[in-house]
Every structure is written in structure tokens, then in C-alpha cells.
């Protein structure tokens, strides 16, 4: 397992995104700047700067009212609060200062306000089921209450618990406890252990994560099929899509398929069909291939990724076959 403290990755990415847009994005207006990102905040090592937090919240609210995309700043702000709850105050204030720069409350060390980060592409329209389809599940992602009854799957981490949450109409993976990122597998499933033959599909977007995926026929505990689609894979077109089974936590490959790695920052449609002992994987409507395995005949369905805080999912759909 590889782990990192989340604030470092998010902060560096946010600054890099801002720099890349300096020639084409309009910097937010700084009505109440409180210095530079390089300035140390009061009691930076012992508490979260509440004054700066309030300024960031006010600036985010104002930007939202103007129709601006504040997702990067909001993620940094929320991560700062999470880190502070773990007494990681240096890291928390680092994230908060970067969020403040994104919304114009602080400037960079060079005296330039960080411009707005690259907006996340809009969530595509939900697919329309055919009249002949039997819809087993088509959950909405309006609040965390929508996933309160879902089941977390994946290996246990000594660092904490993988965090999944609903935000802006999507289901998101947010690392381990929203603080640490890890390359551990994690997933979230819903439905009925009696579901047999079906197609599970989802629209998925990855950034700062290595893969996106689907789960089918999950039984109690760590027992299910998993389809993994890599964003950071072999560096070639070979073996970037994997079908595997997890039996009592032990992972066994079933098949792999060739194809270019998924593009980061782009919505893709993943599909996994299980009929009898045949499993078929698709990406963006193209069939990658099929394989056979008779280990599981029924079970729940869901999504998977790594605990790296970079996966988003929308419009999960389970259709009976």
C-alpha cells in the first residue's frame, strides 16, 4: 500500500491548474485579501485559522452566486477542516491557504492571485432505459442520505476507513477519512444479494486516481466480481482493463483486455454484464471482451476505485437481463 497525506497532492494540483490557466482565465476579484499564500497564519501549527476559514466560505458563496465553478476551492476548504479534526494543523492551514488563493482571498508569493481552477466537466445526461429493460436500481445522488444504506467493500486499512460521499449530484471517493490517500481498493455496493443476471453501468470520471471500476454479484463480505479500468496503467494499450474475482478478500484475475487507458478529467461510461457464468465488460459502448467464471451466481452491484480521492460516479444503473 502506498499512502500520502492528502493536502500535499490537492494543494500542488490546485496551484498547477491555476498556473496553467493564467493566460486564459480571469482571476477572481480579491475584495478582502489577507496577505500571501506564503505568509504563516496565526497559530498555524496549533489550530485552523478560523478568520481565514470564514473569509473563504464568504468568497465561495459569492462565487457560487455568480455561477462560477468553486469545486476545487470547496474540496480544499473541506479537506482543511478534515485535517484540522485530526490535529494536522500545518497541513490543514496549507490547504486552506490554497483554497483562499483560488477564490481571491490570498495572493501567491509572487503577488498574483491564483486564477480559477479548471472546471469539472458537466455530468452527462442520465441514460434512458428501454421499455423492455427491467430496472433493478437507478439511484440518485442528492445527499449522503442516498448512500447511507450502501455497503462498503475492500480491504481494511490501518490508516482508517475509505470515505465515500455525495456532492453536486455525484458519488465521490475521498481517500481514507478524507485525510490520507492510498492505492488500496475500495468500493460501495447496493441492491439485493438475490440479483442474478444483469448489467451494471455508470458514468465515471477520474482525476488524481489510477482507476475506475464496477462491482457485480457481491455477496456478504469480500466476495464479488470486479471490473477495473485504468487511467494510469501500463503506458501501452496492453492489459488496461481487468476482470477479477474477490473470494474472502483474495483477488484472482479472470481476464484482461487491451485498449488505451481512460482519459483523466473526462466522463466515461463503464458497463459490466453478468449472465449465467459469462461476464462482459464495456467502455463507452464498446465491448472489450467476455470471460467465464462460475464462482458467484447472484449478488449486489456497485462502483469501485482506489482510495485516492479522485473518482466521481453518476447515473448508476442496474438492468435485469
Give your account of this protein's structure.
The chain is an alpha+beta fold and 321 residues long. The chain folds into two domains: 3-102, no CATH class; 134-320, Sandwich (Jelly Rolls), CATH 2.60.120.560. Helices cover 19% and strands 35% of the residues. It has helices at residues 6-20, 50-65, 71-85, 89-102, and strands spanning 3-5, 134-137, 151-153, 162-167, 170-176, 180-182, 185-190, 198-206, 211-219, 223-230, 241-247, 250-257, 268-275, 278-283, 286-292, 300-306, 311-320. α1 (6-20) packs antiparallel against α3.
Write a brief structural summary.
The chain is α+β, with helices and mostly antiparallel strands.
Tags for this model:
321 residues; elongated; 7-stranded antiparallel sheet; Jelly Rolls; single chain; 2 domains; 4 helices; alpha+beta
- CATH level-1 class of the largest domain: Mainly Beta
Q: Span between N and C termini?
A: 37 Å
Number of helices: 4
CATH homologous superfamily assignment of the largest domain? Exo-inulinase, domain 1
Low-confidence segments, given as residue ranges, are 4-33
- Strand and helix order: EHHHHEEEEEEEEEEEEEEEE
- Overall domain count: 2
Give the class from helix and strand content and strand pairing.
alpha+beta
Portion of residues within helices: 10-25%
| CATH fold call of the largest domain | Jelly Rolls
Spatial extent as radius of gyration: 21 Å
Largest sheet entry: 8 strands, antiparallel
Please tell me the CATH architecture of the largest domain by its name: Sandwich
Amino acid at each position: 500500500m502506498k499512502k500520502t497525506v492528502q493536502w500535499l497532492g490537492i494543494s500542488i494540483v490546485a496551484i498547477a491548474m491555476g498556473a496553467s490557466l493564467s493566460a486564459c482565465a480571469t482571476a477572481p476579484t480579491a475584495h478582502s485579501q489577507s496577505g500571501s499564500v506564503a505568509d504563516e497564519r496565526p497559530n498555524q501549527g496549533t489550530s485552523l485559522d478560523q478568520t481565514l476559514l470564514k473569509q473563504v466560505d464568504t468568497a465561495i458563496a459569492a462565487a457560487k452566486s455568480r455561477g462560477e465553478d468553486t469545486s476545487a476551492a470547496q474540496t480544499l476548504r473541506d479537506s482543511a477542516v478534515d485535517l484540522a479534526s485530526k490535529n494536522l494543523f500545518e497541513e490543514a492551514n496549507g490547504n486552506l491557504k490554497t483554497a483562499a488563493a483560488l477564490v481571491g482571498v490570498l495572493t501567491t508569493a509572487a503577488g498574483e492571485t491564483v486564477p480559477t481552477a479548471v472546471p469539472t466537466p458537466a455530468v452527462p445526461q442520465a441514460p434512458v432505459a428501454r421499455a423492455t429493460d427491467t430496472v433493478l436500481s437507478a439511484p440518485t445522488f442528492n445527499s449522503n442520505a442516498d448512500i447511507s444504506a450502501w455497503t462498503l467493500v475492500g480491504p481494511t486499512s490501518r490508516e482508517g476507513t475509505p470515505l465515500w460521499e455525495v456532492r453536486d449530484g455525484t458519488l465521490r471517493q475521498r481517500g481514507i477519512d478524507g485525510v490520507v490517500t492510498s492505492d488500496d481498493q475500495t468500493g460501495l455496493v447496493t441492491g439485493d444479494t438475490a440479483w442474478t443476471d444483469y448489467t451494471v453501468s455508470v458514468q465515471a470520471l477520474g482525476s488524481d486516481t489510477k482507476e475506475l471500476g464496477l462491482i457485480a454479484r457481491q455477496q456478504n463480505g469480500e466476495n464479488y466480481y470486479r471490473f477495473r479500468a485504468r487511467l494510469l496503467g501500463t503506458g501501452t494499450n496492453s492489459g488496461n482493463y481487468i476482470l477479477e474475482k474477490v473470494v474472502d478478500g483474495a483477488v484472482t484475475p479472470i481476464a484482461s483486455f487491451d485498449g488505451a487507458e481512460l482519459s483523466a478529467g473526462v466522463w466515461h461510461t463503464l458497463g459490466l454484464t453478468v449472465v449465467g457464468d459469462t461476464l462482459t465488460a464495456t467502455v463507452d459502448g464498446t465491448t472489450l471482451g467476455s470471460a467465464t467464471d462460475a464462482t458467484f451466481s447472484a449478488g449486489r452491484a456497485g462502483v469501485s476505485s482506489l482510495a485516492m480521492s479522485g473518482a466521481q460516479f453518476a447515473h448508476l444503473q442496474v438492468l435485469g437481463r
